[in-house]
Each structure stands twice: as C-alpha cells, then as structure tokens.
Amino acid sequence: MTTATVPSADIRLVNFRYVGSEIGRVWRNARFIMFSVTLPVLLFAAFSAGDQDERLGGLTVAPYIMISMATFGAMNGVFSIGGRIGMERATGWNRQLRLTALTGRQYLAGKVLTGFTVALPGMIVVFLFGHFARDVDLPAGRWALAGISILFALLPIAALGCWIGYLVRPENLQAVAGGLYSLLALAGGLWVPADTFPSWLEAIVRMLPMYWAAFAGRAVISGDWLGWRGVATVVVWTAVLGACAVRAYRADQLRT
Q1: 130: alpha, beta or left, given left = phi > 0 and alpha = psi -120 to 50?
Q2: Other Cβ atoms closer than 10 A to 42
Q3: Nearest Cα to 85, choosing from 117, 55, 109, 56?
Q4: What are the helix (H) ranges across 168-227?
Q5: I need a surface site. Which of 3, 32, 118, 183 has the fewest CB within 10 A?
Q6: Tens-digit pLDDT string for the chain (256 aa)
C-alpha cells in the first residue's frame, strides 16, 4: 500500500472509515457475537455452580471462574483477527485495500482495534453475570481495571492472530485456529487452574503470554497487579509475535 501522493488528512480519514467499517462488519455478524458472548457465560454458570466457599488460587470459586471466562471470551474476540484476515485473503479483499491510501500499518492496526472491540461484549456480560448471579462484588474502578489488565495481557494474542492469518493458507485456517484456540485456553489455565499442573508444565505455561492474561485479572481482584514479570512477558511476546506478523504481511504483499 502506498501513501506517496495522498495528503495525510485523507489518509487519516481513510483509516478512520476503514476501522469504522471493520467494526460495523463484525458487529453485524450476529452469530459470532452470540457465540463470543453466550459461550463464556454458559461455561461460567456451569463451572461455578458448585460450592461457593471453595477457594482456587487465593479466590473463591465465583470470582476465579469469572475472570477465567471473561478472559476466554475476550481471547475469542482478539484471536478472531486471524480468521478475518484469512477470509479477506481468500476473497481477494486485501488486494483491493492495497489500491487505497490505507497503509499496511493502518490495516493491521485496524484489525487489532476491531479484535479488541469485539472482545468487550463477552467480557462485560461475564462480569454482569458474576455480579448479579454469583454475588461477585467489587468497586467500580476495580471492575474496569480488571478488564483493562486482561485486554493489555492479550496484546500478544492479537499479534498471534495477525500472524496466523497470513501464515496459514485460508483453507486450513479454521482447523489450525481451532486447535490453537483450545491450546491457548488450556495454557492460560482458563479451563483447569494452572497451579494443578505438574510443576514442569506449570513452569512452561508461566513463560507463555496466555497465562498472564487471566492472572492479570485475578491479581486486580485480589488488590494486586500483573507484576513486572507479567509485564515483561507480555511486552516480549508482543514484540516477537508482532514482528512475525509484520514479516508475514510483507511476504503476502509480495506474493499477491
């Protein structure tokens, strides 16, 4: 994509309209929104139906599972970036966009912004269910901080989604993304608490970004924060996977 002869104001307008159209297109996909919203809530309701006094990772069951499922729903929205990129590659829409004033950086940024926008409904609905149906009570600021912390820790997953969208052939993307999606949830301790893993496996998942996404939300609920180790893990993985995504994007440009 080139911007050599296009005024910068026009480029910003194109970028603004592109991001707006992307968000609108995703929000009009009722099946995706329903899946990303209803599945985490259903899993939350099922997993938290037992003894409410039982404790997991220093929290009672309801807030612990609430953060797990809010992270699960948000991850679904963020990781779906790869699917949208793959679909555009399959239909040739990405080639059409390269004829506009939209730069490659703006294109990828638009995809990431759309992914995080789609991540919000599932997280918010899970939080609402936790408050009204499972009596999870937090100050207003802590709800917001928990959500922001989770989204921050999902930055590497957004970069991974972009990379996968270009790395995998469109016809194979659904199968690959589905497998990765399950592995990410497992590695993040979203389905099974990571502290129940064997020590060697727990040590491995602590080096992966997904573990820190749910950890970030639980830390806020406990009155703590992500911590420098978590921040470093998120930043390093974002840089590595982001570089991979940019490299794959440029390679796709050369091919098409």
Answers
A1: alpha
A2: 12
A3: 109
A4: 170-187, 199-205, 209-221
A5: 183
A6: 444 555 666 666 666 777 777 777 777 777 777 777 888 999 999 988 877 777 777 788 899 999 999 999 999 889 888 888 888 888 888 777 777 777 778 888 888 888 898 889 889 999 999 999 999 999 989 999 999 999 999 999 999 999 999 888 877 887 888 888 888 888 888 888 888 888 998 899 899 988 999 999 999 999 999 999 999 999 999 999 999 999 998 888 777 6
Quick one: how far is CA 108 from the chain centroid? Answer: 15
Alpha carbon dihedral 132, 137, 141, 145, in 10-degree steps, equals -90
Cβ–Cβ under 8 Å, residues 156 and 209: yes
d(CA 236, CA 249) in angstroms, rounded, equals 20
Helix 8-27 with 30-47: angle, nearest 10 deg: 60
Neighbours of 223 (CB within 10 A): 7
CB atoms closer than 10 angstroms to residue 162: 26
Comparing CA positions, the residue from 189, 161, 151, 22 lying closest to residue 79 is: 161
Integer Cα distance of 177 and 172 in angstroms: 9
